[in-house]
Amino acid sequence: MVGCNTLIWVIFQWVQTSPRQKIFWCYPGRSQWFHDTVLQLWDDRQWLENFRMTRRTLFGVADKLRPYLMRRDTVMRSAVPVEERVAIGVYFLASCSCYRTITLVFQKGSSTVASIVIEVCLATEHVLLKEEVRLSEFNKMASSMKIFGFPHTIGCIDGTHVPISPPKLQGAAYFNRKSFHSVLLQAACDGDSIFFSMLTGHSGVNHDAHVFRSSMLFSKMEEGTLIPGSPLFTYAGVSIPPIILGDGAYPLCKWLMKPFAVPRNDRERHYNKIFNCSRCVVERAFGRLKARFRRLSVRIEVHIENINSIIAAAVILHNICEREKHDIPDEEQQQRSLADSQDGSDIHDCNRSGTACAEAEAVRNAISEYLLTHVK
């Protein structure tokens, strides 16, 4: 009996002191691919092709998100570094690859990749939204739009559908007029294709005007508080506030201009011509957004509650890339059609009525007179 107890004690001591292999906690394969290849060998061209941003830009984003993405090592495994976590999230947005493919690329577990993607998008929205999606100085915004001819203009607004996987029991609520399930992204941009306002979360069945009236942009422009001081431009005795350009889907306001539905004379036709040339900046911005982050062009296979954060993260990172003057690969830019952005051609014209409409008509007529005499 004593000998048996001694043997048990010896076995117990051996188990306690012998090294144990971690057979369930490490994903087999090239676990150091990102550190040994991407960080050590890739140049800026390869970073732009795969992550849509340079190493310096991605590391700058990682530094800002570090307090929210840092994880501690455990006795079972080492934590994924913040830079690699951000790279996984950005790679997800920049490609059409599914989680299984990203798992093979980064050599992480599929559940790890899925959780990292959502955490990176949530952190990006929480930390960087107000910092990156914001108004620039009014004079700078107005001058960037004046290149196209419109005076006192801060930018253009439009909407685009982002395909999603239909949520259970609510699929019909997200089935849009283009015959697929989507969430509507409505955004306004300046003349440099940088978004200064965005709203997402409404299902694709909603009309642009309904989404627009529920936005903070609409409220602040109605109150005249979006632009500090709300500077006025006076022409032909009409006071013109800072204006935004929108298509026929939006209501005509004294601060939101739209084309004449049926131009009746040369002045109105000239206005529509200049208007269309100016408003295409927002279509180009959506085209660059979806060319840069192709995830917004394919059906996003995540839970509906995470869709908004994914879209917001793409818009935020797009603004960062535009401010850093990062190019989009030529083949991506050529493949990205602007057809995904709504041009309003198949949406009924939306108008307001009463005094507000009369004021808006006066502003539009004054602008059309200005364009006829000052812009050819």
Automatic annotation (TrEMBL):
The lineage of its organism: Eukaryota, Metazoa, Chordata, Craniata, Vertebrata. Its cofactor is a divalent metal cation. One of its GO terms (molecular function) is metal ion binding. Its main location: nucleus. This is DDE Tnp4 domain-containing protein. Pfam families: DDE_Tnp_4. Residues 157-319 form the DDE Tnp4 domain. One of its GO terms (cellular component) is nucleus. Residues 328-347 are annotated as: Disordered.
